[in-house]
Amino acid sequence: MDIAQVAPLYESVPPKSYGGTERVVSYLTEELVRQGHQVTLFASGDSITKARLVAPCHQALRLHPTCVDPLAYHIMMLEQVFATGADFDIVHFHIDYLHFPLASRQTIPTLTTLHGRLDIPDLVPLYQAYPDMPVISISESQREPLSWLNWQGTVYHGLPEALYNFHEETGAYLAFLGRISPEKRVDRAIHMAIKANMPLKIAAKVDQVDHAYFEAIIKPLLDHPLVDYIGEIGDHEKNDFLGQAYALLFPIDWPEPFGLVMIEALACGTPVIAHHQGSVPEIIEPGVTGWIVESIDDAVAAIRQVSTLSRRRCRQGFEARFLVSRMAKDYVHLYQTQLKKRNDRVAS
Amino acid sequence: MDIAQVAPLYESVPPKSYGGTERVVSYLTEELVRQGHQVTLFASGDSITKARLVAPCHQALRLHPTCVDPLAYHIMMLEQVFATGADFDIVHFHIDYLHFPLASRQTIPTLTTLHGRLDIPDLVPLYQAYPDMPVISISESQREPLSWLNWQGTVYHGLPEALYNFHEETGAYLAFLGRISPEKRVDRAIHMAIKANMPLKIAAKVDQVDHAYFEAIIKPLLDHPLVDYIGEIGDHEKNDFLGQAYALLFPIDWPEPFGLVMIEALACGTPVIAHHQGSVPEIIEPGVTGWIVESIDDAVAAIRQVSTLSRRRCRQGFEARFLVSRMAKDYVHLYQTQLKKRNDRVAS
Predict the structure, then answer these.
(1) Which residue, among B51, B149, B36, B136, has the nearest Cα to B94 in the 3D structure?
(2) Is some CB atom of chain A closer than 8 A to the CB atom of B120?
(3) How far is B61 from A325, CA to CA, in rounded Å?
(4) Which among A67, A79, A104 has the least Cβ separation from residue B129?
(5) Which residues in chain B touch residue A67, judged by CB atoms under 8 angstroms apart?
(6) What is the mean pLDDT of residues A11-28?
(7) By CB atoms within 10 Å of each CB, which of A250, A312, B203, B302 scores lowest?
(8) Judged by CB atoms within 8 Å, which residues 29-68 of B form the interface with A?
(9) DSSP states along A137-201
(10) A86 falls in which pLDDT band (50, 70, 90)?
(11) CA–CA distance from A177 to each of A191, A204, A237, B61 (Å)?
């Protein structure tokens, strides 16, 4: 098929460091190319891809030194996409709702994966205006606040098979990986580790917006001798950081639509102890790939049971459900359905 | 004519306090209604108008207590505008470039007044994608960075005739009115007043983003016995604040596309001493309605000459060029031109 992928411009595809959406778009794009599709990627100019790259800006915008108006580049990207839209069998958007007024007025087949949380009241009237826009969720739980959208399917994220490798040996520390922010609850992870009397390594970045929270709430907790805060780590360090861990702690306090780090841990063979929130019950199989908990005490009990889990079964759980080849196959199936609908409309 | 006005949703129309664009849209809308046109105003639900109001959100978004995604409401407004666009003879946008990809694909006649500064590098590639989009400037100087746009005209802002009333008597203090921010240079105004040995009253708000600047740079200057900082004032207080002043100081350090406060002062009969920047030379007639200066020393010399100016001539300067009736007439002329072009295209 002739496929366009439309990524946000805040991070490059793939991102230099953090950036969930752009990373998933990269995995999907490269896998579609590998499978023999013609793929055009709309993304920032510092993206690296085997697809044809169309770049509305030279550099990703989040850390761009002079960019004051990121929206201008996104609007220009819409212009580029819709100027050439008829060349594609399908245009797959990853930029929330920005293109909806255009997409609803054009005959180009489109699909939109919604990557963000949808429990934001501001979104309701907007999405109500587009009950027919074909959208894709990244977990079933993500849909709940807007269950009445024109959902075409749920496609769980997937990772390249060889991106992380299986670590057979059980590690000696608990791991926390991600951002330090109120909804990620690294404070819970610290209390879990202290109660379980196990070392905790924290690899996490602090966004500007979370700086006051970090200073006031988290920094005082980092002094504990069991806690080792190692700052932000790069993609190449994550394999060992996750693979050498005893378990990943994922004590979130928000309906995270898809926790990518959970499947990264599983890819390494590392079990996950996660709070019962958002997509967690769809990703973790309790007693097989980890445990789903409701409290710190639950988590401490789960930590004590980790040795009953098989790390090989964790890796197998990843391979069975969260490979990029499966993600790409799911999407191609949805592309074909969408294209067929359009062709049926044109024919009738 | 059947006219749609499309305002930003950050402030109500008119705004409760500060907010240049929404205020001008309000003056224009009410005047068009007064002149007998059918006007539909797309604006926040707390707007007050004699036009038909279509409100994508209940409340203006800048100070909205729970709004986290103002863009969602603006995209919904685009949907509402273009869903009913064919009902209008002209759709007049005041929301920068957000509608360009839609407007360029629809047959609805549109015009866009660009209210902001255009010397932002991010804008260049976007506007290059729309060389045919009909746009209107609010001063000639505003056009300079993007002189190659499809400019249809310059329409200076205008105020209702009775909004401010003529104050015959020369006041005893210098006035500064607006925001406290680095580009507004209230520090210059303070130094001018001290050098001229005249009292200065500062009526200004401090945005969150300018708080550090205010604390570090401006606050230490406010202790001087000649300086009286009275904080933010409402619309109803501005008449006396400006009218009872000796002169308005407008020592800007940026290419302000149109300084509304200058014509507010003139409406009161108060002369303006302004730095040579942006639209200033198009608004101030040196030796008649004020002086244009290049330095603090220039300004001090100008302050000493204010008594040679006629306050009545200042008011007359306002009435001759900056009434809302003139602004509305200019716009209706441009609307008619645009409508005729569309009809010619349809006929041919």
Answers:
(1) B136
(2) yes
(3) 43
(4) A79
(5) 122
(6) 91
(7) A312
(8) 56-57, 66-68
(9) ESSHHHHGGGTTSEEEEE----B-TTTS----S--SEEEEEEE-STTT-HHHHHHHHHHHT--EE
(10) confident
(11) 16, 5, 11, 35
**Chain A residues touching B131 at Cβ < 8 A:** none
Q: Which residues of B touch A71 (CB under 8 A)?
A: 71, 98
- The C-alpha atoms of residue A287 and residue A110 are separated, in whole angstroms, by 40
Q: What pLDDT, on the 0 to 100 scale, is given for residue A343?
A: 86
Contact A78 B98 (CB under 8 A): no
Query: How close B213 gets to chain A, by Cα (Å)?
Result: 19
In this predicted model, which residue has the larger pLDDT, B304 or B344? B304
Of B70, B97, B122, the CB nearest to A68: B122
Give yes or no for A121 touching B (CB within 8 A): yes
Whether A87 contacts chain B with CB within 8 A = no
Looking at residue A145, what is its pLDDT? 95
Distance from CA of B123 to the nearest CA of A (A): 6
A56/B125 CB distance under 8 A: yes
Residue B347: band (very low, low, confident or very high) from pLDDT cuts 50, 70, 90: confident
CB–CB of A41/A54 below 8 Å? yes
Complex confidence, ipTM:
0.90
d(CA A117, CA A265): 22
Provide the shortest C-alpha distance from residue B220 to chain A (in Å): 27
Q: What is the pLDDT of residue A71?
A: 96
pLDDT over 90 at B190, yes or no: yes
According to DSSP, the residues that pair with A286 across neighbouring strands are A290
User: 């995604």: which residue's tokens?
Assistant: B69
Is B126 near chain A, with CB under 8 Å?
Answer: yes
DSSP A47-97: ---SSEEE-SSSS-STT-SS-S-HHHHHHHHHHHHHHSGGG-SEEEE-STT
Whether B73 sits inside 8 A of A129 (CB atoms) is no
Q: Which residues of A touch B97 (CB under 8 A)?
A: 72, 75
Residue B81, helix vs strand vs coil: helix
The yes-or-no verdict on residue A156 having pLDDT over 90 is yes
The pLDDT score that the predictor gives to residue B125 is 94
Mean pLDDT for A113-117 is 96
A190 falls in which pLDDT band (50, 70, 90)?
Answer: very high
pLDDT tens digit sequence for B269-281: 999 999 999 999 9
* pLDDT at residue A18 is higher than 80: no
Nearest residue to B8 (alpha-carbon basis) of B112, B105, B87: B112
Chain B nearest CA to A288, separation (Å):
39
Q: Within 13 A of B174's CA, how many CA atoms are on the CB side?
A: 29
Contact A122 B73 (CB under 8 A): yes
Length of chain A: 348
Residues in chain B, how many?
348
Is the minimum CB–CB distance between A208 and chain B shorter than 8 Å? no
Is omega for the bond preceding A255 within 30 degrees of 0, making it cis?
no
* Residue A84 to residues A89, A106, A298, B153, Cα–Cα distance (Å): 11, 12, 54, 32
Q: Identify the residue whose tokens are 């752009």.
A: A22
Percent of all residues in chain A with a pLDDT value above 90, rounded to a whole number? 90
Q: Which of A79, A98, A118 to mutate to test the interface with B (most CBs of B within 10 A)?
A: A79
